[in-house]
């Protein structure tokens, strides 16, 4: 009984300590951000907000664009066998994602022959790739700009510190400590923003590469499927 009570008290104390630590970290982060000054810290924060907005939008879009290629190919083949090209096109219309769109474009030109199907698949694949990569360059821009703004704030802060030294006619640590601290804070926050956005950017690029590989495999599967089922224009 005593052991249970002691364990309960220990758990409560641990949770309280964790809450205080979390609150203290957030409060410290807020104070440091304010100390950095609104000129550069505000722009760095704007880079983070805009970068995250674009990254989240891309992640949602890419997740919605992900398709089970093997299942789609099986459904298209089944539709071709049972109902012909129109049935297969209907399957593609009812399936979301770039792979289904490529399948539809290829099937829509089956009357012109397999060469026309291949050209349509390649051309529309390029269009879909452009849609996948849309706005991703903005994330890379914010990754580059955020630390640059931080470094600029650092340089300006150091210039102000040296101005005070020259005006005072001597080196006084207390005189320039504030300017140097502000200068370093801008660099720290700029690097933090760049690191956060870089993680999202790498995930987005990996996701795009995965979808593009699926699109290329699906294109080959479609041509093989049409040949195997002897579908001709």
Q: pLDDT average, as an integer?
A: 77
| H/E element order | HHHHHHHH
Shape: rod-shaped
Low-confidence stretches: 1-17
In short:
The protein is an all-alpha fold and 233 residues long. Helix content is 88%, strand content 0%.
Description:
It is a single chain. This protein has 233 residues and is mainly alpha-helical. The protein has a domain at 65-132. Helix content is 88%, strand content 0%. It has 8 helices and no strands. The chain has helices spanning 2-35, 38-65, 69-83, 85-93, 98-108, 114-132, 136-168, 173-228. α3 packs parallel to α8. The protein is rod-shaped and about 90 Å long.
Write the layout of secondary structure elements.
Elements: H1 2-35, H2 38-65, H3 69-83, H4 85-93, H5 98-108, H6 114-132, H7 136-168, H8 173-228
Helix pairs in contact: 2-7, 2-8, 3-4, 3-8, 4-5, 5-6, 5-8, 6-8, 7-8
Question: Which short descriptors sum up this protein?
Answer:
rod-shaped; mainly alpha; disordered N terminus; about 0% strand; about 230 residues
